[in-house]
Amino acid sequence: MDDLDSDWQRKGATLSDKTARKECGLTEDEIVRAIRAGKLQYRHNSIHGNPFLRLLRREVEALVKKKHGEHYLRAQEAKTELARINRDLKRLRTQIASLEERKSKLMADLGR
């Protein structure tokens, strides 16, 4: 029982049903069917009053591997990571532009 509870507590070991749909390409229907078939464990959770299901990542990945294959799962993970990297790069470019602008202004003030 402790091992099961540790899975629910460990960082990154769980994901929401929405994240499972987005990252793994599952549909809400597929998730509900897997829960009813006993293939996925879940817990009810909510953030700021918005309810969602928390799922164990290892079970979701096993379901995706069985349904679509290992290659599909790895491709989905790569797409998710690529999107995260692009988002970070965009944020950093904006930050760099802001810092460059501030630098120019400070250098102009020093030149006076």
SS summary, helix count: 5
Which residue ranges are poorly predicted, with pLDDT under 50 across at least 5 consecutive positions? none
Major sheet summary line: 3 strands, antiparallel
User: Which structural class fits the helix and strand makeup?
Assistant: alpha+beta
Order of helices and strands: HEHHEEHH
* Mean of all residue-level pLDDT scores: 91
Radius of gyration, in Å, reads 21 Å
Euclidean distance between termini CA atoms = 71 Å
Strand order of the largest sheet: 1-3-2
Could you estimate the helical fraction of the residues in percent? over 70%
Shape: elongated
Provide the descriptors you would attach to this structure in a database record:
single chain; 112 residues; alpha+beta; three-stranded antiparallel sheet; 3 strands; elongated
